[in-house]
Amino acid sequence: MSTLRVGSIIGLPDDPRKTEFVLSLLTKTREGKVSWTRKGDAYTAAIPNGVSVNFVLGLGIFGTESAWQLFTVRDRTGNELMQVRSPAVLSFEPSVATGPLLDATNQLFVAISGISGDELGQAIESLKKL
Amino acid sequence: MLAEPLVSDHWLGIFGLIVGVVGLIVGGVGTLFAVRSDGKMKTAQQAQRQVEQKLLRHMATRSLENLAENTLAIMGKIKRREWGDVAESAESLGQRVVEVRGAWTQVLEPLEKDKLDAAAMNIRQFIDSAPMAAPEAQPSEQDVHLMLVRCRRLAEISSEVAGRLSVELMQEPED
């Protein structure tokens, strides 16, 4: 499910700091302190110290973006700090792992999608007011 | 009785002074030439680096364009149900994606790297799901559609990055 796929296969837990990072990001996102931008088939955000976070969306069977596929955190020089891979996108296989990191990442994605939905709703409202 | 020297100390002093001044001028001119030459060398090295960067971008663009073309070719084979060719080409495509991702990492934006990684995941899933050769039971329409969807993302991101690099190449001033 993550870059430590071998670790996942043999049952090693993810680094708890990764989960802590995602949960902190989730809190700050809900507080509106981290702003996410939609760039095509990805959501991206920049946080202090030059760290950037990206969600790449996966395609559903009918070509619609249904869920996230890849979540990556990079430092200011572009080096990968962590990467979480969704086990379920475009796959009929059951999710092999449902660790806290995956749960936290799912929650973060739901939160971002909600914010994005609100923005679209606001755009619709503003059109109606024309 | 002491013989009078051919050149007096006075003239020797003046001669020494002249030699010193000339030496100083020659040294100064030499230094100027050295500085100028160093400047030219730096400019030449800078120009060489720019040419190398340009060549690198050009090669990356070609490589990504080829990747997109290969992916589109496989999509064509899937549509025509040429399963023998599909299986063989898919394995080769899987290797090409990893190669491109590793080779051109320095010209890729962080988000582009992630999108290519995601596309590579899709291709791996596609390889796992593609029929080996002339399957007894033909894959269903839904399976075929899923294979196409898995390939399409790679074609899209490859073309997207190749397009960006092409435009950047065009915008760079000619040397």
Structure in words:
- The complex is a heterodimer of chains A (about 130) and B (about 180).
- Chain A has one domain.
- Helices cover about 40% and strands about 25% of the residues of chain A.
- Chain A contains 3 helices and 5 strands.
- In chain A, strands 1-2-3-4-5 form a 5-stranded antiparallel β-sheet, covered by helices on one side.
- Chain A is globular and about 50 Å long.
- Chain B has about 180 residues and is mainly α.
- Chain B has a domain of about 120 residues: Four Helix Bundle (Hemerythrin (Met), subunit A).
- In chain B, α1 packs antiparallel against α4 and α2 packs antiparallel against α3.
- Classes of the chains: A alpha+beta (about 130), B mainly alpha (about 180).
- Chains A and B meet through β3 and β4 of A and α3 and α4 of B.
Tell me the number of helical segments of chain A per DSSP (H or I, 4 or more residues long): 3
What's the total count of β strands of chain B?
Answer: 0
Q: Note the run of SSEs of chain A as H and E.
A: HHEEEEEH
The fraction of residues in strands of chain B falls at under 5%
Number of domains of chain A: 1
- Determine Rg of chain B (CA atoms, Å): 34 Å
Biggest sheet features of chain A? 5 strands, antiparallel
The number of helical elements of chain B comes to 4
Pair of chains with the largest interface and how many residues each contributes: A-B, 21 and 18 residues
Query: Any idea what the shape of chain B is?
Result: rod-shaped
Sequence of strands across the biggest β-sheet of chain A: 1-2-3-4-5
Low-confidence parts of chain B? none
Task: Give a short account of the largest sheet of chain B.
Answer: none
- In oligomeric terms, what are we looking at? heterodimer
Whole-number mean pLDDT of chain B: 88
Question: Mind telling me which CATH architecture of the domain at 53-171 in chain B this is?
Answer: Up-down Bundle
Strand content of chain A: 25-35%
Summarize the amount of helix of chain A as a percent range: 25-40%
Counted beta strands of chain A:
5
